[in-house]
Write a structure and sequence with these properties.
alpha/beta; Quinone Oxidoreductase, Chain A, domain 1; Rossmann fold; 2 domains; 7-stranded mixed sheet; 6-stranded parallel sheet; 17 strands; binds zinc ion
């Protein structure tokens, strides 16, 4: 038996007698130290994203390897007692088109942790040994829960690499993901991953407290769209980008209306990276996008190895600035409720 947050048709409940997960021969059992609350978890709890019930949510997990199955390779077996995080796409088949083409995160048989199968809002979670990653010692368990979303932030540029001539990037949004993408861009400017990017970064957001964090993390300019009429905002963006518009715009607001704003502020033949997964259909000015010959990129889950390398290479441990609440798992319900009302909140972390 273990403690866990369990979602059933009646809502989210803290249980002290949830069954401890069964471990397969190739699995490792991880004692969860910290688990982040993601927008996806909120969507599952609000039933706007379908999940099989009952389910234990949570996929941004840091914990200690407690034990390993009989068929786990000895180099992984040697990691018992070490802090790890884990990938979200589990039960990768290895035989489908995507697996064979080097795109395992798109495997048609994958099961997403905490979405399709039980996740980490619990004392223990089991996972296939190939999906764990050692956490760099400089990270706390709370910070380590941000490795998964940091990998998703990096994926923006796996799909849409920054080009040599790109001088300006405008990030629309000031939430967790937008700030993680900002952290990646700042690392690129310092040469991470042999990126050619040396341009300027602007963040357009709604919350002064989050924009302040953005400036601290290295944004060259921030605009608060809640106090600027759209016409003035566009004028400022164009002034920032040498009057032609942004070479690259990244839309990470979670707001369906932001796509049109992205199309307006991007220069002709520029790129737009889309990260919002708000789940609603979006009408947008396709004609303007066609006339400007824009390219729209999308991206989802990203490379953990690269995210961990980024953490190891940068001096400033910027992840700590993104954590705005730590709750015991037993207060998980309160954490979800609080998160709904605190507009300035970034990442909330639960600790079993
Ligand atoms: Zn997530
Ligand atoms: Zn597959």
């Amino acid at each position: 038996m273990m403690k866990a947050l369990v979602l059933d048709e009646y809502g989210l409940k803290y249980k002290v007698n949830a069954p401890t997960p069964k471990m397969g021969a190739e699995d490792v059992l991880v004692r969860v130290e910290a688990v982040g609350i993601c927008g996806t978890d909120i969507a599952i709890i609000k039933h706007t994203l379908e999940a099989p019930l009952p389910i234990i949510p949570g996929h941004e997990i840091a914990g200690i390897i407690e034990k390993v199955g009989a068929a786990v390779p000895s180099d992984i077996g040697a990691l018992v007692g070490k802090r790890v995080t884990m990938e979200i796409n589990t039960r990768i088949c290895g035989t489908c088109f995507y697996c064979k083409s080097g795109m395992p995160t798109q495997c048609i048989n994958r099961k997403a942790l905490g979405i399709d199968i039980n996740g980490g809002m619990a004392e223990f979670v089991t996972i296939h040994h190939s999906l764990i990653h050692l956490v760099p010692p400089k990270l706390t368990p709370e910070e380590a829960t941000l490795i998964e979303p940091l990998a998703a932030a990096l994926q923006t540029f796996e799909m849409m690499p920054i080009q040599d001539g790109d001088r300006s990037v405008v990030l629309i949004g000031d939430g967790k993901l937008a700030l993680l993408i900002l952290g990646v861009l700042v690392a690129f400017k310092k040469g991470f991953g042999e990126s050619p990017f040396r341009g300027e970064i602007m963040m357009v957001g709604h919350h002064e407290s989050k924009l302040e964090i953005a400036r601290m993390l290295g944004a060259d300019m921030t605009l608060n769209s809640s106090v600027l009429p759209e016409r003035k905002l566009l004028k400022k963006v164009f002034a920032f980008t040498g009057e032609q518009g942004a070479d690259v715009t990244i839309e990470a607001t979670g707001n369906p209306r932001a796509l049109n704003q992205a199309i307006l502020i991007t220069r002709a033949r520029g790129n737009i990276g889309l990260k919002s997964t708000h789940g609603v259909s979006v009408p947008f000015n396709l004609t303007l996008a066609v006339v400007k010959e824009l390219t729209l990129y999308t991206s989802r889950c990203g490379p953990f190895e690269k995210a961990i390398r980024l953490i190891q290479e940068i001096q400033e441990p910027f992840l700590k600035h993104l954590i705005s609440g730590v709750y015991p798992l037993s207060k998980g319900k309160e954490a979800f409720k609080d998160l709904e009302y605190r507009r300035d909140a970034l990442k909330y972390v639960l600790k079993p």
